[in-house]
Amino acid sequence: MQQDIERFLNLRHLPASCSAAQAAGFLGISPHEVPILLARGLLKPLGHPAPNAPKSFLTAKLKELAEDEKWFGKAKDAISEHWHHKNTRKKRAALAGDTPEEVANAD
Q1: What is the pLDDT of residues 9-59, one digit of tens each?
Q2: pTM of the predicted model over 0.85
Q3: 2-106 sits in which CATH class?
Q4: Which of 77, 90, 92, 107 minimizes the number of CB atoms within 10 Å of its CB?
Q5: 105, burial (CB in 10 Å: exposed 0-12, middle 13-18, buried 19+)
Q6: Helix (H) and strand (E) counts for the chain?
């Protein structure tokens, strides 16, 4: 997967749209962080895909976002808050004696 992202980023002319994994590579974040940005409204997919459908993103918009310091700060804060919240819930569940399956189902 990493090689695919490297090939994509090394293209002389990027395509007009890209997948979620390519968008993550372009922005320098992990592919599993893209849904976090989507849920917070910081990243918008092309069209109106179903919640479980593959998402594509406009490359020109990603270039704008990658150069926007305020947006990047908000994105990184949103990702940090997400993981902090999720880890806090896991710790609380562990202290309460919940099983890992119960914690996963609570997400």
Answers
A1: 667 777 888 999 999 988 999 999 999 999 999 999 999 999 899 999 999
A2: no
A3: mainly alpha
A4: 107
A5: exposed
A6: 6, 2
